[in-house]
Amino acid sequence: MSAATAEHDDHHDHGPEKGLLRxxxxxxxxxxxxxxxxxxxxxxxxxxxxxxxxxxxxxxPGMQFVDPQFFNSMTTMxxxxxxxxxxxxxxxGLANWMIPMMIGAPDMxxxxxxxxxxxMLVAGVLLLAxxxxxxGGAPASGWTLYPPLVLQTGSALPFAIFSVHLLGISSIMGxxxxxxxxxxxxxxxxxxxKMPLFVWTWLITAFLLIAIMPVFAGAVTMLLTDRFFxxxxxxxxxxxxxxLYQHIFWFFGHPEVYxxxxxxxxxxxxxxxxxxxxxxxxxxxxxxxxxxxxxxxFIVWAHHMFTVGMPMAGELYFMYATMLIAIPTGVKIFNWTxxxxxxxxxxxxxxxxxxxxxxxxxxGGFTGLMMALAPVDFQYHDTYFIVAHFHYTLVPAxxxxxxxxxxxxxxxxxxxxxxEKLAKLHFWLSAVSVNILFFPQHFLGLAGMPRRIPDxxxxxxxxxxxxxxxxxxxxxSQLIFVYIVYKTIKGGTGEKVTDEVWEGAKEQSLEWxxxxxxxxxxxxxPPKEVPTMSTGR
Amino acid sequence: MIKTKQLFAxxxxxxxxxxxxxxxxxxNLMQGVTELSNDVYDLHMxxxxxxxxxxxxxxxxxxxxxxxxxxxxxxxxxxFHESTTVEIIWTIIPTVILIAMAIPATKLMLEMDDxxxxxxxxxxxxxxxxxxxxYMDNGIHFFSTLDExxxxxxxxxxxxxxxxxxxxxxxxxxPLVVPINTKIRFLFTAADVIHSWWVPDLxxxxxxxxxxxxxxxxxxxxxxxxxxxxxxxCGKDHGFMPIVVIAMEKEDYDxxxxxxxxxxxxxxxxxxxxxxxxxxxxxGETVYTNNCASCHMADGAGIAxxxxxxxxxxxxxxDMNAQLDLLMSGKGMMPAFxxxxxxxxxxxxxTFIRNGLGNKVGDLIQxxxxxxxxxxxxxxxxx
Lengths: 537, 383
Hints:
The complex is a heterodimer. Chain A is mainly alpha-helical. Chain A is built from 16 helices and no strands. Chain A has helices at 2-10, 21-25, 29-57, 68-103, 111-130, 156-184, 197-228, 242-276, 283-297, 312-324, 326-340, 349-372, 374-380, 384-414, 420-447, 461-489. In chain A, 62% of the residues are buried. Helix content of chain B is 44%, strand content 15%. In chain B, the strands form two sheets. Chain B has a five-stranded mixed β-sheet with strand order 3-2-1-5-8, with no helix packed on it. A five-stranded mixed β-sheet of chain B has the order 4-10-9-6-7. In chain B, a hairpin with a 4-residue loop joins strand 6 and strand 7.
């Protein structure tokens, strides 16, 4: 017995548990990061398959493959899976892997909770996916779950609501962990204004998450009681108001979209200086701009509701407040451009994806600015113009940056180099097809095609077909990424990577001072000095 | 690299080929036929050009840098990383540009909100999945539903080419008719879920919210037919509830009003007369096709797990009053047809489903009896 205990005590100094159990019980930030990233990648393909079903039905006018109700379930589930199953978990995975290594900490502050928040995410997403097989079908009211429509959902409604609760708890635990880690576990030399921007953006994102997830949970709980316990929060016949739900939802929903974009900014600000071989331009203004965007995100929600019928003062206020977001966002784009300016650039896959992000996110920003103007939004609202807008800010922005992050840090995680040629093929296929996919949707929206319709008038046929062709190229191209990741884990190109992997990266951020692959436990003692080039101080 | 270029060229050619095959697409927002829609278009173009100019400046700088400041060109990295002056400049310039956008936007917003001095009022009610129009000044009242040709073609694997259907999915059985050069006030509400009423040529859309009333106005300058769609997801047939507005010269409109009043009278008389079972079943079949078949299927088989079958349903073949109540008030995804269908249509479709689609109950219900039931229904929540 005593021998067994002694062995158990020794355990911490060895590697991980053996076999499958390692992945179930792990409290190691790197293992949990890997779990998050693999889960997110799997969900990216589940959500992507749903998108391909949508684009297949929309390939030609007329109903060919699916029933309209199922089509609506697909648009709803595609969004929920991509937001809560793919993009958010992917960034949490990156946070788990990178934040301790970037601030010189041995692990996350709350390792057991870290494990729990991952498994609750899995439970939440599985619960959501199970609604696909229920009587009445999966939720089909759009990811916004607007009443009264959502209350017509069949047996799936309570399951979808509980799934939102689980996902919310998981996100809140993840966010608390990140905040606790950043505030308590930094190496002494790592002052707040020396933290890499990825850490900064995640710190701010974590506060957003804690603020908004309970709001969403509250909103869906009110749906639950309206449906099953005879309350009338959102039913005018009982003194409620369906628009109240929209206000609550978007008070959550607008910061939520920034939850997906702020860490994206952080990764871009980490990658671009490395490949420009220059310090990030305007480090402190980047930090302040991130904080400003986060603050503004709480006071602009009703720009999603310009057509719902608000008082004039409300319309004007939300229009002006929304326009203000362009200023800090502009500062960020100018800073990235200035970082590239007079650098000594090379264009490996992470840099290519990052540059494409800056360009295509800016396009999404332009359409965002156009839609901020309430009177013109009366035309744009709920058409394919908005579909194009938010997909530009999510796919060639968040998703591209996730790919960039994958290529950027894979050598550090695995100790092997990925196949640069294949990665470039992946980039060019993605960058071209994503524009074939989404750019024509601007034209469709302006020409008058509403979103969330399973069939359309024949004048919309050409651009829909082109958009679908783009989707058929973009979707399968992402399998190249899976192959590259698999091959890199299995040994990659065989070329031994150095500790800093990318030329001069050691000067930019702490993780590059560690061996490649990074050992199971890192920074058991905090580093004495921290790199300063990325912060310019 | 060469392969990528070839691929890109092939795709571009493919796109050009597709585009030249059919030339009836548009790239930009339509100007529309009202003063408001023209102002909206102008503002849209103003902002679009501002964005294009900013885009050229930013992307131009970026691509210049990408081309010239490359390691492969031998460019050495400079190490500057801060300039407060530059940061202030690129905060102030965008602010000025935003003000240049906000001023015309505010003006237009105020103009759109000015509902006063309207010449007539039309109340629009959204239903799953049709529109109800009520002319508040002269009592004309009707429902507007997707036309039969589109409805047939849009059934899954219908075998009908949508391109052979005129105005596929953008045509209705009974369009909204308005006079030109008249300030029309619209009141919007909904009976079940939220819908949104959008005719792009009028320059705006407005949500219809159950239990609440929204307002908007228009004054059409040019006679013609203008088409639009519901733009707020409202369930299964959200994509199939178009809007058609016919704007007419005032004299033509007055004639139309007289015609409508005659029709309303004829309909009221039809509800009073005694119908035979055959008459009801024949009429009921059409009503079924237009209102029920998209969920319960043309043969009454339904979709297992989502939409119950009509054939051999215990509700349909059971007590007639229970069945009528369900049709009147709806349940879950099933809309309430009580106020949506005329007494004649309601009686006809009730009789049809009990005696068609494989059912044989053998009874019938008269429109006059339905009329009595309908008048006992609670009025719309907002009234």
